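Handout, page 2. Input:
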Amino acid sequence: MAHNPYWEGKVDKPVKLGSWNKLRQIIHENDVAGAVRHLADAVRRRLDPEWRRRMRGYAAKDRVDIDFDRRYGVHTWGDIRLDHLGIAQQDLERGNGLYRPIDEKLFWEAMSLLKIDPSEFNFVDYGSGKGKVLVMASRLPFRNVVGIEFSTVLHEAAVANLRDFHSTDKRCGEISAVCGDAIEYSPPGGPLVCFFFNPFSPEVWVEVLEKLRSSWQAEPRPLYVVYTNLRKVEELGTVLSDCDFLEPYALSQRVLVYRAREMGVPLAEDRS
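Output:
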């Protein structure tokens, strides 16, 4: 396998602390009374059947994510709090606070709702993290696959992963990662699929969609906005429905697809 700093331990990655180290960290971050309350809350959570069900779900997802990394020779697994990545406080409030990789099933569910010929489209992943979506999208014949990521640390991980990943299934044109602010990013011309795995605060969404509107008005073309969420798409609120240059296209519990209006194509039915 080619050099990858995540495999070699040269870049911070999620670490599971032992019980003693966890206790020391809790005491360090709280006074004694606060630490006692924290531990009492932890005990109550562990006795809650719903909490235990969620933890089993997270453990199952971890196993699937680790298997993905092994198959493709990359490192995308693990949750990381964004405040551990050197991001300024005012910028933390613009994201959802956590890096978490999408699972393969959700990505392919989203792609199945797009009744398009990928070879006619460019693909952009907004908030591309360590590049997992880019790796999966490369298996479709998109013209080009691009990821835009604000965090320098996550971007560097994506660059390493794109360099290292191996697959006989790669079918796209160029695949690349860009480090920058999604608000300032100018999407490529031509038909476009814009992919979002729950990356932004509503305020950032508004500005990103305005950028997409400007691009589309300058060059009217097929444009799809694909929003995904590990839980349910209702968490997004009305950001997309309030955007008057978009119209609903497809919906499932965890995927919401809008497209630019006036494309001359009949609306898709709910494919959930």
